[in-house]
Amino acid sequence: MTYRPVALATGGAPVIAQSPDGVIRVKAGDALGPYPLRLTDCVTKWARERGQLTCVAERDASGAWRSVTYAVMATRMRSIASALLARGLSAERPLLVLSGNDIAQLELMLGAMYAGIPIAPASPAYSLVSTDFGKLRYLVDLMTPGAVFVNTLKPFKAALNAVFPGDIEVITSEAGAAGATALESFYGLDPAPADKANQGVNADTIAKFLFTSGSTKLPKAVPNTQRMLCSNQEMLRHMFPFLAEEPPVLVDWLPWHHTFGGNHNLGLVLYNGGTMYIDAGKPTPALIGETIRNLSEVAPTVYFNVPKGWEDLSLAMHADSALRERFFSRVKLLFYAGAGLAQPVWDAIDAHAVNTCGSRIRMMGGLGMTETAPSAMFSRAELSIAGDVGLPCPGCEMKLAPVDGKLELRFRGPNVMQGYWRAPELLQETFDDEGYLRTGDALVPHDAANLARGFKFDGRLAEDFKLSSGTFVSVGPLRARVIAAGAPFIQDVVLAGINRDKVAALIFPRPDLCIQLARGVAAADRLATTAPTLSEALALPIVKDKFKAALADVNRQSKGSASKIEFAVVVDEPPSLDHGEITDKGSINQRAVLLHRQALVDAIYAGTARDVLYPSDLPEHN
User: Fold this and answer.
1) Within a domain: residue 299?
2) Mean pLDDT of all residues in the chain?
């Protein structure tokens, strides 16, 4: 079956060099084209050339779409820039954003960039979900913001009162909110100060700060310069030339405090003069309906999502022909990132496309990160399979260095950061001696004899992994919680779930204690003449319920999928020293266990494994 026609990069062969020490270096065969000095130059350009085209739209309280044109956006951008300059904001005193995607945040973002003032969007969860506001306090101490923005005041009141000094200005899109400055008061201000300041904004000016996930440590601040943003968008346009053929239309939920949504997707719209429809939905049971509603009304020309979002969308399409018809009516490219896309989900999307419009729609993937603004690699059209990350973009150099039996991915280029904000002590561990960024990701070639075919993702060098939603699972703390909850019956735990939507656990029990617990049952059974084996003990409800209770206790404290154990298997085969599952000092090797027991992990997720424990069906008496 053929693909819907779409203009994609057809450049020269990559330049590949291998050294005797096993290091592989790869560059694109094409040079990176010229790009603007500032991202806001694009907004000014489109205001002049496509002034009445919608730049951004969102639903209002009535459910209708409210939009802002490029002409209006450019005018507001300049006025807001003057207002922020008057408040003395700078890289040392940036504008911190606590709330999620909306038109007001985009206006402030562009106004700040135009004036040369960085914006720093933080995860709303730091203010709305956290109870101690620990990460938010840390970010405030790290960034020393000069002002803070929230779209509506009430939900953020507790965080504002607890964390921010009384003299910091709070800006909000609400009119008349007590103790805050309304954004609309910035409209119509004299743009002359902003225009003057804009002349001093250059490629090295910090446009925004984005924060790493902080899954294992506290978040780090990544300065994103104008060069990083603009060069990266030119890389995107080179890889996907169709973006320049007509204004792209996106319907997008991905959060702007993450690089995928805030740099890749939003930047793509602004760079190419397209339209962003802000989707207030999300791939969760409570919010996926809003995404379906939006996609049933607005047909995208290109669509981006994390694997969990693609899975939910595919399921919704099974019973909704109107959704399929609208979605596939003009979309030219599908894209996933954040984690690996399962091949069955990919195949289901293909089938929906073929059944709806008679052709497949090209699905692409790649690899990027906050530190690379984000795109660094893209899959190639000729190899459309799950797990493929392809080859580096023009202008971005890739290096694969042998580390602990794997090939660590490293990058160098105009889209790569120069270092974390206010963390000079991290420079040596962040970059190697040739100036390449160490990513901690591992790749493996599709064909070792033909590296030009590209590469596929080979996991993280560290233990932490991502679920299909793109959410990091912090293995160490969660593992410790399971062991503690199951004491003394749990010896150790290995967590599985890379590119899956749920976390599973392989539990290594304490054989002696499990058998001892089971003996009471055996002793009461007149037919029992010998002590039960470990396998027999693990099959008894009284033993199973001990592990279920431990997992249920962990899950009661969980605040999301990344800290919740959905199912587990208690294994009766101890970790093997020969297979490297355990060291001679007794510590578990998570990666080796998952590799050696891959069949068991696959069976758990396929629903074919025996004796799977589900914490959710714990008997009430426990």
Assistant:
1) no
2) 90
